[in-house]
Amino acid sequence: MMALVMLGLVIGSAILASWISSADPLSISPRFRYRLPSSEFLFGSDQFGRDIFSRVLHGGQISLMVGFLSAVLAAFFGTLAGLLAGSFRLIDQILMRVMDGLMAIPNVLLAVAIVSLVGPSLVSIVVAICIPEIPRVARLIRAMVLTLREEPYVFAAVSMSIPRWKILLRHVLPGCVAPLVVQFSYMFASAILSEAVLGFLGVGFPSEIPSWGNVIAEGRTAFQRAPWCILFPGIFLSITVLTVNILGDRLRDLLDPRISASRAR
Amino acid sequence: MARLIFTRLLAAIPVMLVVATFVFLLLRLSPGDPAIVIAGEHASQQQIESVRMALGLDQSLVVQYVLWMSQMASGDFGNSVLSRQPVLSLIADRLEPTLVLATVTIILTVLLAVPMGAIAAWNRDGWRDRVVMTFAVIGFSVPSFVIGYTLVLLLAINAKLLPVQGYVSPFADPWGSLRHVILPAITLSIVFMALISRVTRASILEILGEDFIRTARAKGGHEKRILWKHALPNAAVSIVTVIGLGIATLISGVVVTESVFNIPGLGRLTIDAIQGRDYPVVQGLILVFSFVYVLINLTIDIIYLIVDPRIRY
Amino acid sequence: MDEPILEICNLSIGLNAPAGKEVVDDVSLTVWRRKITCLIGESGSGKSVTSSAVMKLLPGGLRLVGGQILLDGHEMTGANAEQLADLRGRVVSMVFQEPLTALNPVMRVGDQIGELLKIHRPKMGSQERKRRILELLGDVHLPDPPATLMAFPHQLSGGQRQRVVIAMALALEPALIIADEPTTALDVTTQAQILKLFRELMTRHESGILLITHDFGVVTEVADTVYVMQNGQVVEHGSAADILKAPQHPYTRSLIAAVPKYRFRSPLPPSDTPLVSAHDLELTYTTRGFTGRTRQVKALDKVSFNIDPGEVLGVVGESGSGKSTLARTLMLFETPDNGQLQVFGEDATKLRGQALRRYRADVQMVFQDPFKSLNPRRKVGLSLTEGPIENGVSKAEAVGRAHELLDRVSLPRDAMNRFPHEFSGGQRQRICIARALAMRPRLVIADEAVSALDVSVQAQVLALFEGLKNDFGFAMLFITHDLRVASNICDRVLVMHRGRVVEVGPTQTIFTAPQAAYTRELINAIPGEWDLTPAA
Question: Could you report the predicted ipTM of this complex, rounded to two decimals?
Fold first, then answer.
């Protein structure tokens, strides 16, 4: 419940960023360089005199959006791939080898390579973050389909001459929803982290578009002088990812009774 | 047994093939002239043309693919744009720090995370469980650079217990090397520990619900025996699997951690290559890292044979 | 007079969460040395909970409310961890229902037995321990004890694994052995051997046995004393002979009455135009390991039979006999490698597209597990109407059919709007039957359709099948491992063993004058002594 409230606060503060903080996240004023957190600069200011508080709130808009979009795309394509692989043997062979290959590439490297070749933009960053997640979803859904396919009620549907795609839609897909929702929340969390890592490695959004990733990246250079430049966006980022992960755990406990059922001791 | 290892080796080939194809397509399908990307932005027109010839860029995609694959297969990963050195020798030069860091991290993780997960499962919903699970969810959520900088700030800058940055080879100065590697290893291992302790806990909980655990209980004796002698060996397969899959996370973490601690390893090489737009090096690193991942998972498949007597065909 | 080994006095066990509901209510029972005491009841009667309380191994969510358990002079309800560590395995041991999952899959069989000796006889040397394990493996008649010692559980059959569990239970010659449905998961012939083993071991080792079962056949076979449980209470107890001959309590009477009796019907005259005509069906499964080494299993080996219109053909066999493969082949989920399969006058193996769809609609199946054969996420009404609607029946008519069928299987019409989990196992099986019949099939395949049900429910569902068959006039392939069930519903019986048809003939002939040695073995293995003259 706490997690839900916290997440609501983070999302709300990102949406209402312009109203909460009057400071322009982009305005540069050398006079105010490296200010300590105070009532004027709630989270301090960076080497260009920009207000960290405002940058963190505005950055939330980009970071949350990137996380959400990547998770949605990964869930969609992963589910599609998993359903196809679970249903057609020939596709399965090819698709799952491709997925194995994608899994073998470390996700940060893959994302970095994509962004550095195509150039940073909302689309390229979302795509770069979502591609490494697709194989995980695909494997999950494929495994679910293969299990559900053996259920007697699916045999019953086949014996009633119900078309294959309807069986898939009515009897197999609904069984995949619960694990998918759980996986989605984990992907959302990890996508927000990935955006930050890309920013940190210098292949994220350009600094005119504040995101948690590049606010932290810019704070790096001044780390020893002004640790708050990293600390506050870092805390915001961590709390968001933490709450999403906690929600994911709760969802799993609710939706996946397998582990909860083995309470017996 | 030997036959099984052989077939697993064969199965690893298509995976590497997919990785290589992906890397190939990534460059050809992205906007921009591949010749310029490979030769570097500051290359002369002549250099660009010679790259174009060498890669067969004026020919069909199929010819390019065959050409490229044969080059990669023969270990020719091209030259770095920045230093003009062969990519493979650049990678070899930077291997040691990364290997040292990864080894220390894996040892630290496995030694701590598996018992942590087991104890959490055994004391389900007790305070030990809460502590471990809280650690795990935080470890998952806090980015490694935040952990790294916090550790540096607290232990190196304020307390002055350990060096802030850098790397010392264990062959030159073992003690200094350990002092330098300990903070990055802790930083890197936190995510990994979170992952492994969670999976250990979950799979042990699942196994504690199995019928044979009841049989073991009915035998009498001390209850702890059930955890260490019955539950843990059965959970080993899932734990080992996750250690293997976690290698991918570890590699991604290496890139970030080496950058935080300024360690001249493969991760640092990756960052330099990206910032210098040195695509041949990036490409070589992806291939090498993926190869390592496949190799480790291959080893793990073989470990299964030892851990689980049921897997034997 | 023998001494009592276990005395349970006024034991009550309740649920943790909704306090008040008692799963075991004021139960008292006594087990004597060298006697087999049977605790019989249907699912949910509290019999297994009672037995697990003796070892203090209550499943999660349950708690002891009151009562005493005296085991060989030890008070068990108040036993602490140290006492339990000593008593479990040494004074009381347990044999469980599921031999397939009761053994640690990654530990050698010998080590699992040896573990008990290590715990309770720490001074025993390793040579001596090994000798004792070999002796135990021999005691339970396992073939080749030295090889079994080194085997992993998955390398043994279900019956062999159960013998290992029994060897474990015997290892320290405990005063009491609790056996919870020890033969339920086993084939009949194996069941008979295991029950014989219990008797033999009990007389040799001075133990008392508490045997939990739902099967009065088992009671007749081995029990000295019987306790009958219903809804958490003991409703009747006494010597086995008394209870079987003159049951007092109505529940006991209904249980005994529900045990399928032989009841043969006169076979139908053979028809000239059989509905199904199978000739020399062959199907070989090839399993391929990673190494490419192949293993071939002949699931069907020259199987020939006919089913006439309106006839019920029983297929009887143990696990692995190929009876389920036969069902899948008839459903055209599998294609036979060889042989002819004529169904409804067509070559069924050649059907494609529209013809295949029509065929499937004409052949419907009722599955074994009523908890898995309905989609848990769809309302019953959707499950009942989906098939007809997909096959061109209007929605209104499909709903009409569903209502009519719900009436016919004695379920309220508002079941349409409820989810499967709101129904009991028996009710779900009725829904499954209604779902199959909504397609107006000409052939119904029932694959162990009553095996997962309690005996009293089993009798009702069998009667339902009978009535529906008369009303709708379908033919039926009735697959079961239980010969008593087969005798109740089948016109003819086909006995299968390892993919082959051993014998086929009118039900009465099969039971009273079996020709094949295997059929005789099957019939002799049926627990209990049954009157082979027709009941009605």
Answer: 0.82
